[in-house]
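S2.1 Query sequence (Lipocalin-like domain-containing protein)
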Amino acid sequence: MKKTIQIFSMLLIAMTIMVSCKKDKDPATTDFFIGTYKGPISYKKGDTDISRTDGKITVSKVGDTYNFYFGSDIPDIKGVKFEKSGDNSYVSVGSGLTGITIDASKLKMLVIRDGATWTADCNR
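Output structure tokens follow.
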């Protein structure tokens, strides 16, 4: 019985992730979201200057908090909150984290915080 419950739990988790990762799923319409956006990304702070034309950003959302995971030795941005702007577009709010817009198919970013600058113009 214990083994059956474990298998059922794993299947439920896998189904939740698959539904959350669909390309047409709008991150604003769900409390749990994981998606990958691809396109040009960059990061600059002091002597560090990283730029990728084929970059990717993995976005996760739990509740109303978004996290942006870059890879490519670019620091992640975590704990971002958004407000609705227009039909299905959301704009970041909060100290030092403004400049991010996201919807089901597009992620644009220009964030300047603590002397560092992140940019992205990615699609999903």
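Strands lie at 32-45, 48-62, 65-69, 77-85, 89-93, 100-102, 106-113, 116-123. Helices lie at 2-20.
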